[in-house]
Amino acid sequence: MEQQKNLEGYVGFANLPNQVYRKSVKRGFEFTLMVVGESGLGKSTLINSLFLTDLYSSEYPGPSHRIKKTVQVEQSKVLVKEGGVQLLLTIVDTPGFGDAVDNSNCWQPVIDHIDSKFEDYLNSESRVNRRQMPDNRVHCCLYFIAPSGHGLKPLDIEFMKRLHEKVNIIPLIAKADTMTPEECQQFKKQIMREIQEHKIKIYEFPETDDEEENKLVKKIKDRLPLAVVGSNTIIEVNGKRVRGRQYPWGVAEVENGDHCDFTILRNMLIRTHMQDLKDVTNNVHYENYRSRKLAAVTYNGADNNKSKGQLTKVDTVEGISPLAQMEEERREHMAKMKKMEMEMEQVFEMKVKEKLQKLKDSEAELQRRHEQMKKNLEAQHKELEEKRRQFEEEKVSWEAQQHLLEQQKLDASRTLEKNKKKKIF
Amino acid sequence: MSLINIVLVIGFQGEGVRAVPLSGHVGFDSMPDQLVNKSVNHGFCFNILCVGETGLGKSTLMDTLFNTKFEGEPTQHNQPGVQLKSNTYELQESNVRLKLTIVNTVGFGDQINKEDSYKPIVEFIDTHFEAYLQEELKIKRTLHSYHDSRIHACLYFIAPTGHSLKSLDLVTMKKLDSKVNIIPIIAKSDAISKSELAKFKIKITSELVSNGVQIYQFPTDDETVAEINSTMNGHLPFAVVGSTEEVKIGNKMVKARQYPWGTVQVENENHCDFVKLREMLIRVNMEDLREQTHTRHYELYRRCKLEEMGFKDTDPDSKPFSLQETYEAKRNEFMGELQKKEEEMRQMFVQRVKEKEAELKEAEKELHEKFDRLKKLHQDEKKKLEDKKKALDDEQNIFKQKKTAAELLQSQAQQAGGSTTLKRDKERKNVCVLSHVVLFLSTQEHSLNSRS
Questions:
Q1: Which residue from A34, A60, B19, B374 could staple onto A92, CB 3.0 to 4.6 Å apart?
Q2: Which domain CATH number covers A168?
Q3: Cβ of A21 and B313 within 8 Å?
Q4: Which PANTHER family does the entry link to (chain B) (predicted)?
Q5: Closest Cβ–Cβ partner in B26, B46, B91 for A52
Q6: Do B392 and A388 touch (CB under 8 A)?
Q7: In this structure, are strands B182-186 and B153-158 parallel, antiparallel, or unpaired?
């Protein structure tokens, strides 16, 4: 149906990307980043380092300074501008996570938060009157792993297993400057092994058509999970002012690729894959949430309230919108009713026919009998007529005979009289 | 390298948003590029609808705009109704891929009765809105890879009469202005002189305004393009000329139409507004046309459709509905409706059955009555016959008796032929008696005969 056409001159739609660029700058951008990890792992420091700003400060303390009895989920929004581009950044943190003695279900508030953002988006998307839909969905979750050097803790595994299908998880090794490069390598290998073992789906960098880019992507993949170091202080090293941590034995530089993977993280998270993180959230995680939610609402009638949020027979309603489904059901029902109507009609007609037939039969029968009786009667009539005729005939002939006899007798008696008279003489 | 950015505060009510300065280059200024890269990889799509009478040069203009020969033979004027023919093409310019769909109205304006001419067009647009809506409402949907088939721009071709808009034009544009971005253009404008053209444009614009037709305005909210767009808005409707033939002017080959009195150059802004149209439609506002279609026209369609189906944003107590509640409520209503229908049908049938039964009973009764009557008649007849029979039998008996008596007498008389008078007298007496009896009987017979 589509034909490839060659253009014989400059048309100008190659300008489309510029138009898109222009409009996006005008609109501005949004991004929501979630940081999860036990207190003291350097989460706030890392955020400040990433965005080169005092997002967390004494005025706005980070999660470790806001000790809570139970796990809370809190967010702070900041507006940052750079190069004419505006970004509304929302940082979601979880003070109290993993800090209790009994940490069972400490991931639940996190799950609830993510789901509630999905729910908000779903509702605003489904309104009749839709206006600008702010995107408050969590686009990325940085999960901080304590640098034990041994492997993942049960809490880490549990958390990632429960959230990998709801949000893009990027696991980070925190405070990486407590490990030597070799220890770090071992640790990373161990973690990746465990991640694969438990079939945890962390955020994957998309493949591109570009060979060069793919090489870079491969290099990054080999260094997962990224080991990071953050710092709020600027130190002078060799005449340069850098962010770093001052130790008696030297300075661990945040932005030095040999010291840690911070630069990789920043490049990946902000400079190259921010849009992709949003896309994956929108096209995969959100769609999963939505289809589960809607499937629960529509197809299973009474089971709905029990199975909210669980996958229920999604296969059977794949690719149908609830409204289209209602239409389908309506059509089915109409067809069913039509069939029922037809059947009832048929039965009705049949019964009526039967009855009519019976009536006809009995009428015919009666008619027949009547005819027969009539015939009978007529026959009898005829018979009678015949009899009478015969009788009449007989009578007439007999009477004639009698009359003759009478005549004879009369004659005879007359002659006898005559003879008698004669005799006397 | 380290810049301190000016702090901008935007009013986000109740959100507690704070603007913070950056102490270095973070790098999110690449976001627009990231977005652009994604779009370029994904490819673009654009759908144009050309509405206009047969012979106004719609296909030629498309060919000229996109520098290529699209399909088709020119249509005849004898189409029985308006049909929409659409063709999709894959174009590429540098690294930008564009899936272009051109929809043409075939037979528009050719019929004697043009009252319904706009209907196929409206239906077409609605169909594609509906398709998008259905996709959007699916449980498992793939919106990001969905091929957007909604019409993004409608070029309305006005015939170059030089006087005013035809009523068909006004009616059609009025029906379309809330459904699609309308860009009116004066077709084959090389038939109009410059002075006539100015007057024509003014007349058209004032007629559109006085009839409340909303045509597409090039957006002026973005500073980068505000100026050029607002200038162009003043040149609407564009007077265009299309041509795929090339003529040598100077030492260049240009697209033109050659007349005995001169050559009309398509891309010469003094000759016609083709360049302006191309600039506005393709180079500057293509993306905006798509956006307007999605955020304004499609939303309007969607809102109307959902309201039609009974969806509301808030329940009677003005509390917002959650999607789930809405769907469940709708569903219950729906099921209730279906059940009611079923009941009604059943009731109707029960009624019919009753009626029919009564009817048949009536018929049966009548039949029986009829036959009772016949039976009665028959009985009467039978009785009569019986009577007659009896009468005959009686007669016969009488006759028999008479006969036997007579015969007896005769035989006696014969037997005693010349015997004693006494016998004879006796016989005679007997005969006398008998004859009296016979006489008597015969009189009876007579009376019987006369009676029967």
A1: A34
A2: 3.40.50.300
A3: no
A4: SEPTIN
A5: B26
A6: yes
A7: parallel
A150-208 pLDDT, tens digit per residue, is 889 999 999 999 999 999 999 999 999 999 999 999 999 999 999 999 999 999 888 77
Nearest chain B Cα distance for residue A247, angstroms: 24
Structure tokens that stand for B230 in this block: 């607002």
CA distance B273 to B251: 23
Residue in chain A nearest B351 by alpha carbon? A348
Closest by Cβ to A20, choosing from B39, B71, B334: B39
Distance from the B290 Cα atom to the nearest Cα atom in chain A, whole angstroms: 11
Is residue B41 helix, strand or coil? Answer: helix
d(CA A63, CA A43): 8
Q: Which residue of A has its CA nearest to B418?
A: A416
A183: domain range?
A: 18-298
Instruction: Specify whether the CB–CB gap between B159 and B200 falls below 8 A.
Output: no
- B60, burial (CB in 10 Å: exposed 0-12, middle 13-18, buried 19+): buried
Low-confidence residues in chain A, pLDDT < 50: 300-318
**Number of independent structural domains in chain A:** 1
Instruction: Check if B296 contacts A (Cβ < 8 Å).
Output: no
Give the span between the Cα atoms of B189 and A402, in whole angstroms.
136
Does residue A169 belong to any structural domain of this protein? yes
d(CA B430, CA A26): 156
Q: How many angstroms separate the Cα of A355 from the Cα of each of A345, A351, A363, B361, B371?
A: 15, 6, 12, 10, 18
Residue type, B175: K
| A277, part of any domain | yes
CB contact under 8 A, B67 and A9: yes
Q: Is A225 a domain residue?
A: yes
Asked whether residue A264 is domain-assigned, the answer is yes
Subunit contact B70:A387, Cβ cutoff 8 A: no
Is residue A20 within 8 A of residue B35, CB to CB? The reply is yes
Query: In whole angstroms, how far apart are CA B135 and each of A274, A293, A318, B159?
Result: 27, 17, 12, 38
Q: Could you give the CA distance from residue A314 to residue A295 in angstroms, rounded to a whole number?
A: 6
Instruction: List the 4-23 stretch of B: residues with Cβ below 8 A of A.
Output: 5-6, 8-10, 12, 15-23
Tell me the ipTM for this assembly.
Answer: 0.72
Of B6, B8, B282, the CB nearest to A13: B282
Burial of B290 (0-12, 13-18, 19+ CB in 10 A): buried
Rg of chain A in Å (alpha carbons): 54
Q: Which residue of A has its CA nearest to B367?
A: A363
Shortest distance, CA B303 to any CA of chain A (angstroms): 5
